[in-house]
């Protein structure tokens, strides 16, 4: 980055500082990752110079022959990897991608059914603070109070009573495998569209270590920057019959020119995700999350659903007389980065809930395995036992920084 260093030292220095932060802290936010150098290069390429409103061979600007090839390549890689007949690779991110699907299939005022925010749904699944909650009538569902898991009898009962036009199957904080076939049966019974939001688990689905919504969901949204380990962006996958309406909803319905540099970087990430070593990566993500879950359970934390079979763990820290936010702040002081999160049926507010959410995708990318997860659990437990003792947190922070010297990824 020698030009940046010369021309804008402030921004250059801040980027360098952020890079150092990413390489010296243990990053356990389940929606984050480290992209490859190849993905970074595509994101930082001259493709950012080009305007390309429209789709291949149907653009509103000249000079598209190469961009068309790039977009078609990314699109066909997405269709092949996720085994769905149509992909749109233009959505700016997961949130507009969800909205585009709703706009393609529904009219304002229609009823959508999604998981509540506090039980692990996303803002764009009809939360009252999101436009999706203002444009549509929202019927929420939640998880079972006993098990913390999806309760398909309950979901079916709500769907039968409320007759939603679209059911959303997808979560930001659900630590178990999602049965898209159970959702599909219910959607079929009540005549609703099924929309799968696999933003978090796209990499696991691509690698074949999580059930796929292909052939079951009408529309699927995947962010490209979480377990899929690509640039910030999103894909919409759909059945052939919705291809035209999805494309129209993305452009011109919701967006202008696509971010061609991102489109290319998505293509790079999709190629990486189709390789055998990515399957190994995805398997290790799950092994690592399970090791975190078992370790935290042994240390006396209560986990939502009692464990995990994907990439994330939701731990109730209130048993240590600490709130989720206090825990997240104390952990950051020791160089361990998590996010505070509500646990299902949390009695505390979302800004200071009872839980923390941890995930293994980023640490697995840089090469950590089960032994390292055990060490991380030990540090987490020490931090939460000593969250008011600054000197102790600093001491653990030094150990963490020394440990992270072994993982200079870039
Ligand atoms: C992350 C996420 C999104 C939104 O993605 P952004 O890129 O942040 O807009 C949507 N749905 C789910 C389930 C997510 O986890």
Can you tell me about this structure?
There is one protein chain. This protein is of the alpha/beta class and 410 residues long. It folds into two domains: 40-273, 3-Layer(aba) Sandwich (Aspartate Aminotransferase, domain 2), CATH 3.40.640; 280-404, Alpha-Beta Complex (Aspartate Aminotransferase, domain 1). The chain contains 16 helices and 15 strands. It has helices at residues 2-7, 9-24, 37-43, 65-82, 94-105, 131-135, 152-162, 180-190, 202-206, 243-254, 260-273, 276-298, 324-333, 361-365, 370-385, 390-404, and strands at 26-27, 54-55, 58-59, 86-88, 111-115, 137-141, 166-170, 193-197, 219-223, 234-238, 302-303, 312-316, 336-337, 339-341, 355-359. The strands form four sheets. The protein has a seven-stranded mixed β-sheet, with helices on both faces. The longest helix has 23 residues, at 276-298. The chain is globular and about 60 Å long. The mean pLDDT is 97. Pyridoxal-5'-phosphate is lined by residues 31, 93-95, 98, 122, 124, 170-172, 197, 199-200, 223, 234.
Spell out the blueprint of helices and strands.
Layout: H1 2-7, H2 9-24, E1 26-27, H3 37-43, E2 54-55, E3 58-59, H4 65-82, E4 86-88, H5 94-105, E5 111-115, H6 131-135, E6 137-141, H7 152-162, E7 166-170, H8 180-190, E8 193-197, H9 202-206, E9 219-223, E10 234-238, H10 243-254, H11 260-273, H12 276-298, E11 302-303, E12 312-316, H13 324-333, E13 336-337, E14 339-341, E15 355-359, H14 361-365, H15 370-385, H16 390-404
Parallel strand pairs: 1-13, 5-6, 5-7, 7-8, 8-9
Antiparallel strand pairs: 2-3, 4-10, 9-10, 11-12, 12-15, 14-15
Helix pairs in contact: 3-11, 4-11, 5-10, 7-8, 12-15
